[in-house]
Amino acid sequence: MMKNISLQHLMTACLALACSAWPLAGGAQGLADPTRPPTHLIDPARGGMAQGEVSSNPLQSIIRSGKTRKALVNGEWVRTGDKVGTAVVDGIGDAEVVLKQEDGSKETLKLYPDVEISKSKTKQRAAQSTKPAGAKQ
């Protein structure tokens, strides 16, 4: 009877040891880190930026908090009215910053320059259905 109990304890201990060592053996390597940026954004071999490389897009981020908007341009946080080089921040949108140059011309910096943002078809239909019956579409 005593022999069966110690054999059972030994088998349980071996099973627990094997299960706890599984992640160390590489079983967890197949799991992706959900907080890691996509590889193509950080791996230069796949078209990403190398460490220390500066982006060609000066607009890096936009933060909205209530009515306050800030934009990270060339590593500096700016608000409407602040200077960026020789230009003045004329406005900060959801995904763009408008700069007014000294000569009066305007330049738009886009957060996602390669992305065309448009309303979804559902929102377009909802906007059309709220128009008065006599309004042209």
What does this 3D model show about the protein?
The protein is an alpha+beta fold and about 140 residues long. The chain has a domain at about 60-110. About 25% of the residues lie in helices and about 25% in strands. It contains three helices and seven strands, in the order H-H-E-E-E-E-E-E-E-H. The chain has helices spanning about 1-20, 40, 120-130, and strands spanning about 60-65, 70-75, 75-80, 85, 85-90, 95-100, 105-110. It has a four-stranded antiparallel beta sheet with strand order 4-5-6-7, with no helix packed on it. Strands 1-2-3 form a three-stranded antiparallel beta sheet, with no helix packed on it. A hairpin with a 3-residue loop joins strand 5 (about 85-90) and strand 6 (about 95-100). The radius of gyration is 28 Å and the shape is elongated. It starts with a helix and ends in an 8-residue tail after the last helix. The mean pLDDT is about 75.
Query: Low-confidence stretches at least 5 residues in length (pLDDT < 50)?
Result: none
State the share of residues found in helices, binned by percent.
Answer: 10-25%
Using only C-alpha atoms, the radius of gyration works out to 28 Å
Shape: elongated
What is the structural class?
Answer: alpha+beta
Q: DSSP strand (E) fraction?
A: 15-25%
Topology, number of strands: 7
Q: Quick one: biggest sheet?
A: 4 strands, antiparallel
Number of helices: 3
Mean pLDDT: 77
* Strand ordering within the main sheet: 4-5-6-7
- How would you describe the oligomerization state of the chains in this entry? single chain
What's the end-to-end separation, in Å?
Answer: 88 Å
Q: Could you give the order of the helices and strands?
A: HHEEEEEEEH
